[in-house]
Specification:
Elements (H helix, E strand, L loop, with lengths): L2 E7 L14 E4 L2 E4 H10 L4 E6 L3 H8 L5 E4 L6 H12 L7 E6 L7 H14 L2 E6 L2 E2 L3 E4 H8 L6 H7 L5 E5 L12 H10 L4
C-alpha cells in the first residue's frame, strides 16, 4: 500500500508571532522545529511526503533540510482548506497512491502505532479516519484515495471538518492511547503547555 503524507505548513501563524513553523521543538533526531518534528513523525508511515508551503517558505525549506519531499505553494492568507486541497490534489497525481495521511505543521508529534492504526483502518473501512484520545478529536487524518478524489472535487466552502459533518458516514474516529494527537500549537500558551507535557517517541 502506497501512503502519501501531506503536511500543511503554509499559514502565517500570527498568534505565534508569525514564526510558528520555525519554533524550536525536539524531534526524533534531536533539536529541531515544529515543522521538522511534524515531518519526522509522519515520515515513518509514508512512502513520500508533500509539504504545502507559503509563509516564510525559504526558511521552512531550510529547516527541513536534508529531508526529501515534494513542495507545493499555497496562499498563506487563504483559508486552510486552500492548502488542504492543493496538497491532496498534488498527492493524487502520484502513481498508485492508496491513502493520504493529512497532517498539520503545528501538530509536531504522533506515535508510529497511531499512524499504523489510522492507515489500516482507513483502508479497511474505506472512509477517513482520525484519532480520538479520551474523547477529544486529534490529528492526523488518514484518507483513502477514493474519498480524497471526492473531497478535491469540492471547493470546501466551509472547510474540511464541515464537509465531513455534512455526511458523518465518511469519517470515523478511532480511540488511541496517544495523547500527542491532541498537541496543537497556535499560541504561546499552547507552546508552553505542550512543552511541559512533551515526550519524544
Amino acid at each position: 500500500m502506497s501512503v502519501i503524507g501531506v503536511l500543511i505548513a503554509a499559514g502565517r501563524g500570527r498568534r505565534l508571532d508569525g514564526n510558528k513553523q520555525l519554533t524550536p521543538w525536539p524531534s526524533v533526531h534531536g533539536n529541531g522545529t515544529l515543522i521538522s518534528s511534524a515531518f519526522d513523525h509522519i515520515s515513518v508511515a509514508c512512502d513520500e511526503i508533500i509539504v504545502v508551503l507559503g509563509h516564510r517558505q525559504v526558511e521552512v525549506e531550510d529547516a527541513l533540510r536534508p529531508r526529501v519531499y515534494a513542495t507545493i505553494h499555497a496562499d498563506p492568507d487563504a483559508d486552510m482548506s486552500h492548502s488542504i486541497l492543493a496538497g491532496m490534489e498534488f498527492a493524487l497525481r502520484v502513481e498508485d497512491v492508496d491513502c493520504i495521511l493529512l497532517q498539520l505543521g503545528d501538530h509536531p508529534q504522533v506515535a508510529p502505532s497511531t499512524l499504523e492504526c489510522l492507515i489500516r483502518s482507513a483502508q479497511s473501512m474505506n472512509m477517513a479516519v482520525a484519532p480520538r484520545y479520551q474523547g477529544q478529536h486529534g490529528h492526523p487524518i488518514a484518507i483513502p484515495t477514493s474519498l480524497a478524489r471526492e473531497i478535491t472535487s469540492s471547493d470546501l466552502p466551509h472547510g474540511l471538518a464541515d464537509w465531513f459533518r455534512s455526511d458523518p458516514s465518511r469519517r470515523q474516529f478511532i480511540d488511541v492511547d496517544d495523547p500527542s494527537v491532541l498537541i496543537d500549537i497556535d499560541t504561546p500558551d499552547d507552546l508552553a503547555e505542550a512543552s511541559r507535557a512533551v515526550s519524544v517517541f
